[in-house]
């Protein structure tokens, strides 16, 4: 069973939507039978809000799933009501990003491209603090940084996630927080690259145009094959999760191409250390 309540909620949403459609019922029809509004049922089926186990049981009965067949999904619904560590930071994490962190916490593979900044999973405390102060001001900086650093547990421990990052060369040269902070940050990235589950590649300016020029991205894959991979895109005010298989496959293809044209991991570490040495 999934460990993240966010991923469990997503699983329930998908299963209930599929069961309703297989039963030949519209949202309006099902919502009326379940004594809820169409909008609420729609939000449940898109994982925007959760659903209580008793309401899952009622929905399953409506769709013809009863007895022992209903218990696995009801058990998942119980787990979805648990609190993830990130919910302790709900006061500083926007709801759209809190959803992402809940997905990330369950991921076994994270693939990302960044054009301007160091990915959050690789940031030092000083670098993260500089980014937040520049992009969001001084409010609650300590708690925001604490949440970001807590996310990095994903890369360590007994069963760390596999992590593949392609960094535009500009990431190495843009000195967030000043040269001392940036030098420390680059040295830290080089250290992390030595972890067996971490692959970091630099995309040099010399390659010219490339397939990801229009957007950074994160691709998350999960341990349970029933939980489809997700592509996550965000900006200053909103995040978008792409879940359709053709969308995810498109980004996976782009990531493979970037890895193919970027410096290999060993060359990338040399370039990162060279950039660190140039920070003076």
TrEMBL record:
Keywords (A to Z) from UniProt: Coiled coil
Domain of life (superkingdom): Bacteria
GO molecular function, one term: DNA binding
Coiled coil: 13-47
Signal sequence range: none
Domain HTH cro/C1-type residue range list: 16-70
The protein's name: Helix-turn-helix domain-containing protein
